């Protein structure tokens, strides 16, 4: 009898120890876990957010999903149906997973799975999952100068602002990819260019004749890539384009000045006044006649006057 009591006491002690250590999960209540707390997905592809119930005693627990974006929560699964912006684009899968059929960039957010089990000792648990949707880059905007002069510096630009994560940029010359460091390639070892893969800039410190040709840029991330149409850059020994533009400016200026002068001449802006206008000088007295002052009202005959 004494031995039986001692055995029962040991059994109760063991059960209490196991319970305190968590070796009997069902008595602890609902416990959730997930396969991935940080999930990446490509836009327009399916993705499943896992909410696995490791332990529960309640037969019909209450399951809810919330989307938290910019700190503001909204329902995704509530009262046994999909709601919000995932309506008609997702479904609940056993035990409590959410399957999104075609993810979009607007789905990038945090998602919280909540399970309430009223019959369990621990009647509530939740788990937070971060979803990031990769977005394929669109066709980048490329800027390639049409003509440059040998020995001068120039820059080619490439920009794309739709892709997520931010894409890396690569440049191609005559359908051949330019190496990141020209010194590592025997073909480009004498080139003076540098590429910034983060901003898409291709800079030449000193342009060579060999740098002429067709250029295009490619933007790439984990979701895909896109490239701009090829553009031609010509390299001249002399700045023909600059000389032409300067000559054009000089000819235009000459025509404008000439036109202004002609217009002014037509309007008589440069016409000189005649000698008779406002001219009060007396004519030269070579006829032998001596004229008196104007206020005398007459003139006197000299002895040389001949009738």
Automatic annotation (TrEMBL):
A molecular-function term among this protein's GO annotations: integrin binding
Highest taxon listed in the record's lineage: Eukaryota
Keywords: Cell junction, Cell membrane, Disulfide bond, Immunoglobulin domain, Membrane, Signal, Tight junction, Transmembrane, Transmembrane helix
SUPFAM superfamilies: Immunoglobulin (SSF48726)
InterPro entries noted in UniProt: Ig-like_dom, Ig-like_dom_sf, Ig-like_fold, Ig_sub, Ig_sub2, JAM-C
Biological processes, Gene Ontology terms: cell migration
Location within or outside the cell: Cell junction, Tight junction; Cell membrane
PROSITE patterns: IG_LIKE
Signal peptide start-end: 1-22
SMART domains on file: IG, IGc2
Listed transmembrane segments: 240-262
Gene3D superfamilies recorded: Immunoglobulins
Domain Ig-like: 25-130, 137-233
Cellular-component GO terms for this entry: bicellular tight junction; cell-cell contact zone; plasma membrane; protein complex involved in cell adhesion
Family assignment from sequence similarity: Belongs to the immunoglobulin superfamily.
The protein, known as: Junctional adhesion molecule C
């Amino acid at each position: 009898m004494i031995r039986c009591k001692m055995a029962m006491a040991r059994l109760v002690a063991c059960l209490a120890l196991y319970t305190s250590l968590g070796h009997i999960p069902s008595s602890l209540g609902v416990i959730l876990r997930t396969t991935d707390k940080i999930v990446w997905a490509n836009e327009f592809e399916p993705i499943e957010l896992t909410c696995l119930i490791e332990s529960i005693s309640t037969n019909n627990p209450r399951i809810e999903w919330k989307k938290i974006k910019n700190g503001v929560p909204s329902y995704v699964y509530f009262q046994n149906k999909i709601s919000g912006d995932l309506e008609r684009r997702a479904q609940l899968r056993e035990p409590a997973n959410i399957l999104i059929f075609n993810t979009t960039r607007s789905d990038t957010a945090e998602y919280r799975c909540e399970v309430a089990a009223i019959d369990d000792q621990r009647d509530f648990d939740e788990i937070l999952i971060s979803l990031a949707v990769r977005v394929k880059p669109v066709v980048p905007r490329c800027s390639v100068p049409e003509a440059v002069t040998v020995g001068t510096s120039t820059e080619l630009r490439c920009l794309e602002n739709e892709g997520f994560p931010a894409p890396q940029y690569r440049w191609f010359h005559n359908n051949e990819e330019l190496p990141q460091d020209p010194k590592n390639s025997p073909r480009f070892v004498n080139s003076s260019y540098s590429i910034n893969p983060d901003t898409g800039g291709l800079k030449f410190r000193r342009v060579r004749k060999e740098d002429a040709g067709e250029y295009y840029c490619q933007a790439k991330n984990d979701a895909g890539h896109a490239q701009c149409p090829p553009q031609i850059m010509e390299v001249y020994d002399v700045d023909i384009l600059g000389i032409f533009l300067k000559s054009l400016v000089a000819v235009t200026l000459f025509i404008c000045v000439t036109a202004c002068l002609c217009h002014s001449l037509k309007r008589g802006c440069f016409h000189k006044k005649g000698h008779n206008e406002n001219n009060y000088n007396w004519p030269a007295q070579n006829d032998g006649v001596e004229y008196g002052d104007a206020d005398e009202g007459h003139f006197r005959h000299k002895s040389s006057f001949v009738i």
